[in-house]
Design a protein that fits this description.
The chain is α/β, with parallel strands linked by helices. It is built from 11 helices and 8 strands. Helix 6 crosses helix 8. The longest helix is centred in the last third of the chain and has 17 residues. The model has no long low-confidence stretch (mean pLDDT 97). The structure holds SN-glycerol-3-phosphate (G3P). The site of SN-glycerol-3-phosphate has 10 residues, from helix 7.
């Protein structure tokens, strides 16, 4: 499974990219607003920091303007994935932008039928928002199970399932169990994925015992 960072904070992205574990980045207009910087300055920095896909979202809502904005974004860097909302115009724009050779991430997906249409429109990625479904007492991860099943029924559909709106590590574990292709994860949660209190406790005990031996690995010839 691939890991994308769900942020437009370049410091966080650089730090995470240094681990070699980051496969891409997703942004959205809210995350760009939070970063408080010029959109294209942010995109330039992010696209230079990671090799993998960097999702950049159009803000137009009608087909023509979405395609125009999408082309502009796609031309900006080779690793841009144009993000379009899952609306009729968004699906049409997806088809057009894909035919023009751009990567497209169809976002704000909340149902299996929407995901099926995104795949039919040739989306590179579809972004189901699991946390926002959980927020309204629906089962976000059940949507991921449904989309996986449906896509696997039709091998000609090549769209990758990009699990978004991840709120805690168990969303990631479950996404991996289901076989989702990508999880886009806020940096604070990404860092939690490597933590375990028993790792810290075990390491502390090992180091205390090692210190008792008085030895040093680097002292040996
Ligand atoms: O990638 C979409 C994601 O950022 C939405 O997350 O937490 O705002 O629902 P959230």
């Amino acid at each position: 499974m691939k890991f994308f960072a769900d942020t437009a904070d370049i410091d966080e992205i650089r730090d995470l990219a240094a681990t070699g574990l980051l496969d891409g980045v997703t942004t959205n207009p809210s995350l760009v607003a939070k970063a408080g910087r010029d959109f294209f300055d942010v995109l330039k920095d992010i696209c230079a920091a990671v090799e993998g896909p960097v999702s950049a979202e159009v803000t137009a809502t009608d087909y023509d303007a979405m395609v125009q904005e999408g082309r502009r974004l796609a031309d900006f860097a080779d690793n841009i994935a144009v993000k379009v909302p899952l609306t009729w115009d968004g699906l049409k724009a997806c088809k057009t932008l894909r035919q023009a050779g751009a990567m497209v991430n169809v976002t704000l997906c909340f149902s299996a039928t929407q995901a099926l249409f995104a795949a039919k429109a040739g989306a590179t990625f579809v972004s189901p928002f699991v946390g926002r479904l959980d927020d309204i007492s629906e089962d976000g991860m059940q949507l991921i199970r449904d989309i996986r099943l449906i896509y696997d029924n039709y091998p000609a559909l090549e769209t990758e399932i990009l699990v978004a709106s991840i709120r805690h590590p168990m969303h990631v574990v479950e996404a991996a169990r289901i076989g989702a292709d990508v999880c886009t994860v806020p940096p604070a949660i990404l860092r939690k994925l490597a933590d375990h209190p028993l790792t810290d406790k075990g390491l502390k005990a090992f180091l205390a015992d090692w210190q008792g031996t008085g030895q040093s690995i680097l002292d040996k010839p």
